[in-house]
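Example 3.2
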Amino acid sequence: MNDAGHHQDQASRDSDEDLAELTRGFLRRKREEFVPFARASRLDLEGLANAAHRLRGSGGAYGFDALSKLAERLEAAAAGERDEAAREALEELLSLLDGLQRQAR
């Protein structure tokens, strides 16, 4: 392999690792954002709807379509003040985030 090819390969590996680290950070931050909602004895439905709305957009930007769809469902439940449906969607969301974090390691 010539010197230019070696540098391209290294740059590609570095870029892949940078992207992987960004993805891991994103998933970690999102989990940290949603865990307090799950631990609260009373859901902050407005705050949860806002957080879910942000996740709906950012999840898609990272290529996590399933995460965005679940966030959309969570947002609708929270905005509609359907406490039980929101709690169920929140638990599913945390489970999905856990699974995605395990895959991203």
